[in-house]
Amino acid sequence: MAIGQGGTGYALKNGSIVELEGTRERHIVGAAEIPATFAGAALFQVQNAMAAIAACRAQGVPVDTIQSALRTFDACGKNRGRMNLYQLDDNYVLVDYGHNPGAFQATCALAAQWEGRRLTAIVSLPGDRSNALLEACACEIAKGGFHRIVAKDDGDRRGRAPGELPALVQRVVAEVRPEQASAVIPDEHEAIEHALATAEPGEVIVLFTEEAPAMEEMLTRMGAVAVNAVPELRSGTRLRSRRREDALLAV
User: Fold this and answer.
1) Is the pLDDT of residue 243 over 50?
2) 216 in the same domain as 104
3) Within this chain, do residues 63 and 81 fall inside the same structural domain, yes or no?
4) Domain co-membership, 115 together with 201
5) pTM of the predicted model as reported, rounded to 2 decimal places
């Protein structure tokens, strides 16, 4: 039912998730207050929160209960392997099990919000997908705006030959962005160690992995700590970008 016909909707307005009912507008929670949104930078997580709010409100859950739940839900503690952010010295590592074009596209859009920082992608692809789908995934990575891309194998190659999928990623990247810096480091541990050893100050490394717990344990041994945001380096630009998105986020 449309809002004008007595229905209820939810939208992002000026950084806040609001409930719309007729002419009434009620503030629910600021997007940046939700740890899983990384201070509001992850618009797809804002959309997820809006959908959760809508479902809860439809069941009569009080607003204060929803606020408390969203403000205390952090991905590292409660959703391991999905958008887990770590800080190691002055660098950041985002760990996620992205494995389809939509997930890669959304994660690339998030990384683009961290303006002024060098961005590195460490990527592997699931071997039990068609080559056409894998090429579509690699294409999203190539278009993602990363300064460098490191292709690796998964521990479970799912029937593929060693090095086959990293070679596919590098081939597609070269076709889509010939100027893109890329490398193949098949071993996942070696790939992350190389990326960290050669990182610039403030760099963000996006690690796509199906072995998130093992990678997170490795990062923790190296001294990494879980965090909920990457500090903004350029004020104003990202805020304006988010405001342009306000009208596009509604459920």
Assistant:
1) no
2) yes
3) no
4) yes
5) 0.88
Segment 3-49, tens digit of pLDDT: 766 689 999 999 999 999 988 999 999 999 999 999 999 999 999 99
Same domain, 97 and 42: no
Q: What is the phi/psi pair of residue 105, to 5°?
A: -60, -45
CATH number, position 205? 3.90.190.20
pLDDT value at position 4? 63
Q: Are strands 91-96 and 84-88 parallel, antiparallel or unpaired?
A: antiparallel
Q: Which residue has the higher pLDDT, 78 or 184?
A: 184
The encoded tokens of residue 117 equal: 């920082």
Residue 33: which domain range?
Answer: 3-73
Residue 249 lies in a domain: no
What pairing do the DSSP bridges indicate for beta strands 119-123 and 91-96? unpaired
pLDDT tens by residue, 194-213: 999 999 999 999 999 999 88
Surface-to-core class of residue 125, CB atoms within 10 Å of its CB (0-12 exposed, 13-18 middle, 19+ buried): buried
Q: Which pLDDT value is given to residue 121?
A: 98
Q: What is the pLDDT of residue 74?
A: 87
| Tokens at 222, concatenated | 């190296």
| Residue 241 in domain | no
102 and 148 together in one domain: yes
Tokens encoding 66: 């929803």
Q: Could you give the number of structural domains in the chain? A: 2
